[in-house]
Amino acid sequence: MEVDGFLRGLRELQATGTLCDVVLYGSDADEGSALANGIPCHRGVLSVHSAYFRAVFTHDWKDSRDPVFQLHNVDTATMNALVQYAYSMEIGLNADNVASLVVAAEFLQMDRVAGKCWAYVQQHFLRSIFLLVEVLASDDVAVFSEDQVLQALLRWLDHDRDRRLAQLHTVLQVVRVPFLSEPAAMEYALALASAPAPSECQSGMVGRITLAGGTARHATPRDSYGARDVILCIGGHFDGDLDEVGVSDTVEVFCPSMPSVWRLPALPGFVNGCQAVMLDASGMLVAGHSGVNRLQRDRHYLGLRDEWEALAVMRMPRCNAGLAVLQGRVYAAGGCSRADRLEVLASVEVYDAQKDSWSTAAPLPVALEGMGMVAWGERLFVFGGKDEEEGIVPWAFSYDPQANAWTRLPDMPTPRYGCAVCVAPSGLVFVFGT
């Protein structure tokens, strides 16, 4: 009874603004709005319940003395509920407010409130599912396409289908359906049809997370779609002699900013000595050979659906060729007509993605293989390589597509073979390799 009287006295002081020494404002409060009046409080009461406020108010910071304090990541309604708990030790939890309350309570280090929120979650909605939804609802989740989000949820379901099926309808709300490929949209529809209807609590909690930014969020792509800088390792030779057994069909992706490594769908065939270029934001073209005596003539394209498709074959099989994209067209220059380097080529072919066809362009001034090639500005540049008579060379050439002609450039200081070429933002061209 004495505790009840003490708390009642605190509430009266707070309600009347008596002895209050700070006014709290939420992230949605701005001058001139109805919320701008703020919430009068006592620093001592807030410090008892929140380690965050205790640290702010007991250190020699400007904020510790300011009579007005605004939290930029807690809205006014949520903050008001937390303040009322501080003065009454009571908080009303429901599906509409528990998601925002647990986030704010953990930020403010109000451990008792956070514990009550998680207990509510455990009772009405499994904590692991809540966290899964929170992660996959984010704009920043690292995926190349929305199909990967759906596949992650379906793998999660398959891990314990009997227990998790009841939650499937709820977690599927995080999928941004407009950005699914057609096959994935069919998978989504089938999964949704097999899922039991969620409880009101489950729907409310997920809705609070997924629609925190407004209903338009599901109509916008995630920030991470195809936007992360990654390194791809495609095919290649491993262990043993260079034959079908020792050539890989795997495609591995390394993301330095995460960092993590994962695999894309395997190539339709084994590929070694391959070259790859990005056609546009939707996919890449990969070319290579599959063994000593048989050159892989099919070229493959990777689209947003993470699927490989065979494209039109080149007119001349080639490996160790130069490959680059200029003005939306793929140029394949030089290379060997067979993997055992029976014939070195000077011919150049051009791929038109709109027509899915190859045509010819002016040949290189000399037959070369293993050279580096890059597009810069309105020209192609070729560096180094191996000539049948001269061996490894320091030669450099540029190609003008308007004139359909090659021009000899000054030689590099060092002959190079199997070299990589890149253009820095400054416009400098760097050539690396043997």
How would you sum up this structure in a few lines?
With 434 residues, the chain is an alpha+beta fold. Helices cover 30% and strands 23% of the residues.
Compute the average pLDDT: 77
Strand element count:
22
Regions with little confidence, pLDDT below 50 for 5+ residues:
31-35, 208-217, 291-305
Q: Tell me the overall shape.
A: elongated
Structural class: alpha+beta
Beta-strand portion reads 15-25%
CATH fold descriptor of the largest domain:
Potassium Channel Kv1.1, Chain A
How would you sum up the major sheet?
Answer: 4 strands, antiparallel
* Share of helix, binned: 25-40%
What would you say the CATH architecture of the largest domain is?
A: 2-Layer Sandwich
